[in-house]
Amino acid sequence: MSAIKNYMWTVGEYAVDHGIQAAMTKYVESEEGVKVCIMFVHAYDGDWEQFMSEGNWQEPAVH
After folding, report:
1. What is the dihedral sign for C-alpha 28, 31, 37, 38?
2. pLDDT band at 63 (very low <50, low <70, confident <90, very high)
3. Is it the case that residue 1 has pLDDT exceeding 70?
4. Among 6, 24, 34, 35, which residue has the fewest nearby CB atoms (within 10 Å)?
5. Residue 48 and residue 42 in contact, taking contact as beta carbons nearer than 8 Å
6. For residue 62, what pLDDT is reported?
7. What pTM value is reported for the model?
8. What angle do CA 7, 14, 49 make, to 5 degrees?
9. What is the rounded radius of gyration, in angstroms, for the C-alpha atoms of the chain?
10. Structure confidence by residue, pLDDT tens digits, 22-55
11. In the chain, what is the greatest distance between 2 CA atoms, to the nearest angstrom?
């Protein structure tokens, strides 16, 4: 896997587990960048609004 794909996977997986804000802080990434990484992890080919409307994203529950 290329370095950029590895990075996107890492950020996306972290965001799925900890939320968008936490991923933005940890990886110094924009909100849009984190959203792209989340869609990459889910192998989604569309925009964020479609991704949300299809029920593919919910913020993780705080533990």
Report:
1. positive
2. low
3. no
4. 6
5. no
6. 65
7. 0.89
8. 90
9. 11
10. 999 999 999 999 999 999 999 999 999 999 898 8
11. 33
- Is residue 41 within 8 A of residue 9, CB to CB? The reply is yes
What phi and psi values does residue 10 have, to the nearest 5 degrees?
-60, -50
- Start-to-end CA distance of the chain, whole Å, equals 32
The one-letter amino acid code at 45 reads: D
Contact in structure between 11 and 37 (CB atoms under 8 Å): yes
Q: Residue 41 and residue 51: Cα distance in Å, rounded?
A: 12
Token pair, residue 14, equals 């972290």
User: φ, ψ for residue 29 (rounded to 5)?
Assistant: -120, 150
Amino acid at the residue 14: Y
Q: Is the pLDDT of residue 16 over 90?
A: yes
